[in-house]
C-alpha cells in the first residue's frame, strides 16, 4: 500500500510559493463557507515519527482564519480522562458545527501503538477498526467532514531524519527511544497498513501523504484539504452525500507522479542471461511446487496487464516448470450463464485451490476495477466498494495460508502499438489481435488511472502487486519466475 | 434481548389451520415472483438446540414450490471443504439469482460454537461479526434477499425439551452430550446475544422467533418470510432498497403480545411493607455507593417512562440514600445551543462519570428513539441507526467497568388519565401538567410501539432494561432501589 507514496515526489520552494496564494485563498474561502453552512470539520493527522506532522499543522494554522480552529494532541492524558471510557477525551474535543479541529493521532494512536508492540492481537486491531468505523460513520452521518491524513516516510528517509535529530538534540534518553523507534519501523508500517485498510471506508477515506520532501508534503496536504472541503460544500449544495472516488495517494495536479511512472521500462536481459536465469528459476520453481504440495501450502497467482504485454508467455514459462498435476490455469473471459447468476466473486471462489495446489488466473477478479470500471459495466458504487470486497476476499485466502502473487505486466503505449502492428502483419499472430484491442487502446488514459487506483488500494503486504517492466519479454518472464519462487520460499520458510 | 421472545406466545392448531391457506398462497406467490424477477433468497436458520429448526424447514419445504429450493447443513464438512478457506463451503452453495436456499447455522455456527466454549475471545467474535457483516452486505448489495431467523427457547423449555428427548432416545452418548449442552445454555445465550447484536444491520436484520409453542413458531416464521419477500419485491418495483424498520421479535398480527404486555400492573406494596423495604434498600444503597467509590466502579442509571409514571419520585428515593458527593442528577430537557451544535450523543458523553461516581439521567439518549421518533424530530434513517449507536455507546461504558441500570416506568393509559386529572385539581400539582402532556397522551399507541422496539433492540445482558410496574408508586420505588442495589452488588462481587 505504501509504495503508492514512495515515489520521490518533490516540489521546489519556488514552485511552492507560486501555488501558495491561490491555495491559501481557496482554503480560507472554503473554511468560511463551511462555517456559514454550519458544517464541522475534523482533520485527523497520523503517520510515522519524524514526518513533520507538527510543521504542517503549524503552517495550516497560519493559513486558516484562527477563529473556530482548534488543535488537540492526546499525549498527556489528564486524570479526568484516564478514569473515563477512552473515547470521552475525543468527544469533549469534537468540533462543533461550523468550527474546525486538528487532532494528532486521535483514536488511531492507541491501537497502533499497542499492536506495534504486540500488546494486542490482530483480532483486537480489527475490533478497534470496527469501533472507529462506527464512530466515524456516526459523525459523518451527522454532517461532519472528516479528513484523515497519513504521513509516510520511506525506511531510508525515516532513518536519516532520526539521525539528523540525534545530532541536534541533547536529550540522550529521547535519542535512545528514537533509535528503538526506527527498529520498529517495519512492525509499525505493517500495523498501520492493517488499521488503515480496515478504516478506509467510502464515506471516511484515508489520504496517504509522501512526507520526504517538505514543500511537496505541505502542498499535498493543503490540496487534499481544499478538495475535501470543496467536495463537502458541493454535497451540501446538491444534498447528495454519496461517496466519490479519490486516489489514496493524492497528486499535486501540476506535478503528477504515479506508481506506474516508476516502472523502469528500459529493463532488459540479453539472450544468454535470459536462458541462464530462466533455467535456474524454472528448476527452483519445480522443486518449490512439490515442497509446497507436501507442506499443504497453496498458491494463487494472478496475471493482469495491458493487451499484448505478454501475460500468456509469462504464464507458460511458469507452468512449463511445474508438474501438471499440481496446477490449474483459469482463463477469465466472459462469465457463463451460471456464473452470471451469482455474485461476481463466485466464479473465482469456485477455483480456490485445495491445500497444496496452485491456481493461476489469466485475468481475474480485478476485472471489476479495470475493464468493468472503464467500460461502465459496473456502476461507480459497485466498483468503488470492490476494493474493500477484494481485499476481504484475499484476506480470507491468505489467512488460510494461501500464498498470493499478483502481477501487472507493464508496457508503454508505443510498445503496445508496435506489437499490435506486428500481430497484424505476421500471419500466425493475427488471431491474437481483435477490434476490441484497438478500442481498449483508445482508453489508455482511463485504464492507466484505474490501474494506479487498483494498485494503491489492493497492494497489501500479505498480497502485494508486482509491477513487471514488460517491454523486454525476457526480463518480464524471469522477473515473474523469480517472484513466484521468492514468494513460495518465504512461505515455506515459515513465519 | 431475548426477553422479547419469552412472552409465552401460543397459537392453537385450529388458529394455525385457519391462517394456513392464505399464508401458503402468499408465500408461493412471492416465491414465484422472486424467481421471475431473478432475485436470490437466502434463509439462514440458527438458534438454541431443540427449538425445532428442522421441523420448521420441513414444513416450509412442503409449502414452497420445490423447484429451485435447496437446503444445506454444514455439520459434516468434506475433505474438499476442510482444505479450503472456511467460506468456500458457503460460496459454493449460495443460491443463484431466482432460486432459494435454506442454510442451517451458516456462517454463524462456527464463531458461536467457539465462543461458547471459550476457544475464542470477545474480540475474535467481533472480528467474525465484522467479516459476516461484510459478506452479507456484499450479497445484499448484489441483490440477494437474506432472511436471518433465530429460534429461541426459554431456559425452562430448553431443559424440558432435552429431558423429553432423553426419554425417547436410545443413544446414550448423544444424551450425555445434550445434558452438557443445557449446562452451557447461559454461556450460549450470552455469546448469541453478542453475535446477533453485532450482525443485526439495517440491511440484514435478525428476526427472533419464540419457539416454545410449535404452531406459533411455524406461523411466525412463515409470516416473517412472507413479509420479507414482499418487502423485497416492493423494493424491486420502486427501485428503492433503503432499510425499513421491523421489530426484532415479529408478531402474528391477529395475536400480538409484546414485552410491555407482560408487565404486571397489579403489583403493589402495603404502606408498612413499603417503609420496611425502602429503608432496607436505602441503607444498602448508601453503603454500596461508598463501596463502589472505593472500588472505583461508576454507575449510570437511566430513567424513562410515561408522563406521570413517577420518575421524579423514584429518582428522589434513590438519591436520598446516596451521599451527595457521589452522584449527579442530569435532567434532560431541550438541548442548549452548544449541545445542539454537536452530535446528539455529545451532551451525554459530557456527563459520563469519573471512576467511582454515579450519574442519574432523568430522561436520556433514548429520547432519540422515543420522542424524536414519534414526533418526527429525527428522520426515520436517523432513529433507525440510533439503536446501533446507542448499543455501541453503552458498550464503551460497560467495557470501562461502568454499571448501567435502565428503568422504564410503566403505567396504563387509564392510570395516566387518573393522575393527570388529579394534577389538574390539586393546586400544588398543577405545575406538573402541561398541554404537551395531553398531546403526548394522544400518541399513546405510537409511543407504545417505540418503547417495545427500544427494549427489544437495546436490552443487553450488560445493560438490561428493567420494566417497572408503576401503577403503585410504592412498588415502583422499591423495585428501583432493589435493582440498583443488585446491579452494584453484582459488579462489586467481581466477574
Summarize the structure.
The structure is a homodimer of 495-residue chains. With 495 residues, the first copy, chain A, is α/β, with parallel strands linked by helices.
List the main descriptive attributes of the protein structure presented here.
globular, alpha/beta, homodimer, 495 residues
Question: What is the count of helical runs of chain A?
Answer: 20
Question: What sort of overall outline of chain A do the alpha carbons produce when their principal axes are compared?
Answer: globular
- Order of adjacent strands in the largest pleated sheet of chain A: 2-3-1-4-5
Whole-Å distance between the termini of chain A? 21 Å
β-strand percent of chain A reads: 5-15%
Largest interface: pair, residues per side: A-B, 53 and 53 residues
Percent helix of chain A, as a range, is: 40-55%
Secondary structure class of chain A reads alpha/beta
Could you report the average pLDDT of chain A, rounded to the nearest whole number?
86
The assembly state of the depicted protein chains is homodimer
Q: Supply Rg of chain A.
A: 25 Å
Number of strands of chain A: 10
- In this structure, how is the largest beta sheet of chain A organized? 5 strands, parallel
Elements of chain A, N to C (H/E): HEHEHHEHHEHHHEHHEHEHHEHHEHHHEH
Unreliable parts of chain A: none
